[in-house]
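INFO  loader      accepted 1 record
INFO  loader      residues=40
INFO  predictor   begin
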Amino acid sequence: MHVFETIDKSGRKIHLSKERWQHIRLEHPEITNEYEIERP
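INFO  predictor   done
INFO  writer      dumping tokens
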């Protein structure tokens, strides 16, 4: 499952997995939810 998915500038689909989101939350407690991530 993905937290979110987007298209990069070169047209590739990229996503943030739940596993990577958990890592971000553990290592960067100042980010409390996925809505704080800058989106295009």
